[in-house]
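Lecture 7 notes: from sequence to structure.
We start with the chain below.
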Amino acid sequence: MRELPRDESLVRGAMVRAMDGLAPPAGLVHGAIELARRRRKRARAAGLGAGLCVAAAAATAALALTAGPGGAAGPPATPPAAPPAPSAVPSASRTPDSADFASRWDEDHRWQIAVTLRELLAPAVADVTPVEGEDFRYDGEGQGGEVFPITFSVRPAGDGPEASPCERADSDLGACASHMLADGTPVAVYTGQSDGLSRIAALLRFGGEELLVEVRPDAGSRTSAPVTTAHLLDVVADPRIRPLATLPDGG
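Predicted structure tokens for the same chain:
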């Protein structure tokens, strides 16, 4: 009789014991052994497949970490270079006008001008207040509630002496008449009409500055400016005016 392989011998012995000493049917032992072998092969194959899946997953993750947009691997993106700083280009300059200078007066200075004008223009004008947003404009309130627009502006004087205060007469201000203050300062006084109502202005130079003081009519109440030439000359001659008429910031 042939000698049984070890696996088959073990299986046959186990079957004989289980069947209480009876021999198992022919072929049953061999079939059981083949079935066990196939199961072991499948188990090993499954283990190998699982290992390959784990390795593949690890490789995929590594590629994903280094991949650029679209999944393609590539070198890490470098940050964009900072744009060059803009070169300093000086802005175009222009000669400042009276509005430019007046806009640099602070509110305290403007109120000092308003208070001084109120004192000097009384009793023709009862009160003077700065106009918000128009730095060289003021409102003069009349005794009857009228509102007379007042201009108090300063600008650099032109070059060279003038033969007469009206040498550079401004026709927009009206007819010009030359006057002289007690200290020898020449003054151009302009009188004219605005919608049939009288207005008056004084223009004078001192040092390197030019001062314009103008009182216009109240168009709403149809009331002419209540200031005469003599009164306006007294206003611009007052010693309190020139310190207020200096160019701001050392103009």
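Points to note: The domain at 98-250 is CATH 2.60.120 (Jelly Rolls). The helical segments are 6-18, 28-66, 98-102, 107-121, 229-237, 241-244.
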